[in-house]
């Protein structure tokens, strides 16, 4: 690992200093909410707290906040924002609407990340993909954090029963994204929905 | 990308301690060309902190590197303040906030969100004149000397060494640029004097303020004013003052410069990218107003009509599907609309249950953009609109 990457790792871990985590086993399916289970593929750390990295949602990380974050935002109901952001009033957030088309959802995710102070947000390659046995959508994104870190990300989402489920992975574009995105692809492919045919029971 | 910033608070504390024992500079003098304060003064310490931010800004991915645009803005600055031309350095940052500022060391930062909103050179000149006046009057230094006697100084300096993101978010330097209302009135007056002395139309500053106020008022959910307005006196007061002064001087003006064509030629190539960035703010109600303000000047613009459609579609309020559909159709009938106008029309038609319109629009989009990255999604929409596979 290059010195620059090590410095970045140290900085980001320092930011996450007081956060507590619980381990997640690699090969055991995990219920991430709204009847959705995924298989972690590798060992992750589950962040314990209402706001993780300044935003709500269930977050898994391998190396720490800012380095790799897999954020599960499940069961978002109509009228609700995608997540809560530290210091941002709920009224200022874009809310989910059950009539949204996949493009609308992608734009809402980008707008939400923008509200969190990220800049130069770009989204691309919105495409339909499997979500369990149903249909979901994927898109890729890039942005610069308010601390100047260039990030890449990829998101999987599905609209089911008037609710929205989003799984969002983000990591620095230098080194970390490319290192972990193959694992994330497998996590995405492992999605099972409890009320769908062939779904696995949650652990 | 910035590394090693965790030392920021320690640096800030050390700098604050160093400054607390130094003599204060004479704060109110206009800085002479090439002026640089001694490092053992409050002002010298403040400049050193700003120099660090400027070095970071120079390598930031947010910096807009278009030479023509940078030269254009720099020329306006130099025309307004020729004696300080060599002391003022312009940086344009890719950020949809409507903002501009001048740091005490002469670093002039202009946000692309401001350049999207100013409609001509005279409006931009007024804003730059306002910010130059803050610099000439050393307002940020006066503020700094005030906060160094309070616990707030730690926060200011910690934030100011917190990286370019804080700067872009108008956090750190913004704290220094949180001018008093009297300072803002002085900057408005100074900016007005600078633009009128340079032959600009005296009414344009007030027009910019009116448009900004209209945009702010459009968002009933907004809990905070824009970065630009948050530190300024009441917009109505500024409007009245600027309009009154413009009225007094207008009768004497013969060939006032507005500079809409020149401004449009320089800024135009960036407009689509900046409008895309605008939507990432997620304040669609304001975007609707701002784009319609631009459309008043260029009603034939297919590009602006397309983005008006995008703003309505994303706001998704009562009547917005219909407004979006009309805007997309106007875009398609206008000049320079992107292929995506057909996709947008298809999306709102699909929502409105007009499946035939949706199918035609999506098929047109795919014929115009056969290699579109979202082709598979549009095929999905086509299926939803009842098209055969």
Outline of this structure?
The complex is a heterodimer of chains A (203) and B (389). Chain A is an alpha+beta fold.
Can you tell me about this structure?
The complex is a heterodimer of chains A (203) and B (389). Chain A is 20% helix and 38% strand. With 203 residues, chain A is α+β, with helices and mostly antiparallel strands. In chain A, the strands form 2 sheets. In chain A, strands 1-4-5-6-10-9-8-7 form an 8-stranded antiparallel sheet, sandwiched between helices. Chain A has a 3-stranded antiparallel sheet with strand order 2-3-11. Chain A is globular, with a radius of gyration of 16 Å. Residues 5-17 and 197-203 of chain A have low confidence and may be disordered. In chain B, helix 10 packs parallel to helix 13 (235-250).
Labels describing this entry:
heterodimer, A: 203 residues, alpha+beta, eight-stranded antiparallel beta sheet, 3 helices, 11 strands, disordered C terminus, B: mainly alpha, three-stranded mixed beta sheet, 21 helices, 3% strand, elongated, disordered N terminus
Largest sheet of chain B: 3 strands, mixed
The general outline of chain B is elongated
Q: N- to C-terminal separation of chain B?
A: 47 Å
Shape of chain A: globular
Give the arrangement of secondary structure elements.
The complex is a heterodimer of chains A (203) and B (389).
Chain A: H1 3-15, E1 20-24, E2 30-33, E3 36-38, E4 44-48, E5 58-61, E6 69-77, H2 102-115, E7 119-131, E8 134-144, E9 150-160, E10 163-172, H3 176-189, E11 192-193
Chain B: H1 8-20, H2 42-58, H3 67-80, E1 89-93, E2 100-102, E3 107-111, H4 112-117, H5 121-136, H6 139-147, H7 152-160, H8 164-168, H9 172-176, H10 181-197, H11 204-217, H12 227-230, H13 235-250, H14 260-267, H15 271-279, H16 284-297, H17 302-315, H18 320-333, H19 340-351, H20 355-368, H21 375-384
Parallel strand pairs in B: 1-3
Antiparallel strand pairs in B: 2-3
Helix pairs in contact in B: 1-7, 5-10, 5-11, 10-13, 11-13, 11-16, 15-17, 16-17, 17-18, 17-19, 18-19, 19-20, 20-21
């Amino acid at each position: 690992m290059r010195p620059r990457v090590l410095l970045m790792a140290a900085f980001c871990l320092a930011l996450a200093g007081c956060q507590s985590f619980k381990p997640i086993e690699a090969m055991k399916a995990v219920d991430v909410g709204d009847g959705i289970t995924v298989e972690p593929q590798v060992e992750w750390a589950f962040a314990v707290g209402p706001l993780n990295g300044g935003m709500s949602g269930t977050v898994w990380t391998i190396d720490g906040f800012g380095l790799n974050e897999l954020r599960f935002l499940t069961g978002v109901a109509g009228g609700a924002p995608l997540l809560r952001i530290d210091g941002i009033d709920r009224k200022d957030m874009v809310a989910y609407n059950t009539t949204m088309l996949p493009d609308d959802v992608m734009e809402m995710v980008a707008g939400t990340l923008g509200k969190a102070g990220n800049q130069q947000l770009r989204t691309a390659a919105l495409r339909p993909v499997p979500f369990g046995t149903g249909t979901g959508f994927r898109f890729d994104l890039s942005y610069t954090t308010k601390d100047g870190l260039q990030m890449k990300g990829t998101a999987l989402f599905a609209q089911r029963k008037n609710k929205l489920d989003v799984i969002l992975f983000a990591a620095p574009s230098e080194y970390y994204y490319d290192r972990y995105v193959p694992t994330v692809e497998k996590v995405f492919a492992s999605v099972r929905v409890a009320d769908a045919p062939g779904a696995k029971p949650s652990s | 990308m910035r590394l090693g910033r965790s030392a920021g608070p320690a640096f800030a504390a050390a700098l604050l301690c160093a400054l607390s024992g130094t003599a204060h500079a004479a704060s109110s003098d206009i800085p002479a060309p090439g002026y640089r304060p001694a490092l053992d003064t409050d002002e010298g310490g403040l400049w050193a902190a700003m120099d660090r931010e400027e070095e970071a800004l120079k390598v930031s991915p947010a910096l807009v590197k278009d030479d023509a645009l940078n030269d254009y803005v720099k020329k306006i600055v130099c025309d307004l303040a020729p004696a300080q031309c060599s002391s003022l350095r312009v940086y344009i940052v890719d950020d949809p906030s409507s903002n501009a500022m001048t740091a005490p060391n002469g670093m002039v930062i202009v946000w692309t969100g401001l350049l999207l909103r100013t409609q001509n050179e005279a409006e931009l000149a007024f804003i730059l004149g306002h910010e130059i006046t803050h610099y000439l009057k050393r307002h940020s230094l006066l503020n700094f000397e005030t906060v160094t006697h309070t616990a707030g100084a730690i926060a200011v300096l910690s934030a100011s060494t917190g990286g370019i993101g804080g700067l872009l978010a108008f956090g750190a330097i913004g704290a220094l640029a949180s001018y008093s209302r009297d300072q803002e009135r002085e900057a408005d007056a100074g900016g007005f004097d600078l633009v009128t002395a340079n032959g600009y139309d005296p009414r344009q500053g007030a027009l910019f303020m009116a448009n900004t106020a209209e945009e702010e008022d459009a968002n009933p959910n907004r809990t905070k004013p824009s970065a630009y307005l948050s530190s300024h006196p009441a917009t109505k007061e500024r409007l009245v003052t600027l309009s009154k002064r413009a009225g007094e001087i207008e009768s004497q003006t013969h060939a006032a410069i507005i500079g809409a064509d020149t401004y449009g030629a320089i800024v135009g190539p960036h407009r689509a990218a900046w409008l895309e960035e605008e939507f990432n703010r997620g304040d669609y109600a304001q975007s609707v107003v701002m784009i319609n303000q631009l459309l008043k000047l260029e009603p034939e613009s297919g590009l602006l009509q397309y983005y008006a459609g995008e703003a309505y579609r994303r706001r998704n309020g009562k009547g917005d599907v219909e407004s979006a559909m009309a805007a997309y159709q106007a875009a398609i009938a206008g000049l320079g609309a992107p292929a995506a106008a057909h996709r947008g029309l298809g999306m709102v038609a699909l929502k409105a249950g007009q499946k035939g319109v949706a199918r035609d629009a999506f098929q047109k989009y795919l014929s115009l953009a056969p290699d579109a990255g979202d082709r598979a999604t549009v095929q999905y929409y086509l299926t939803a609109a009842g098209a055969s596979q």
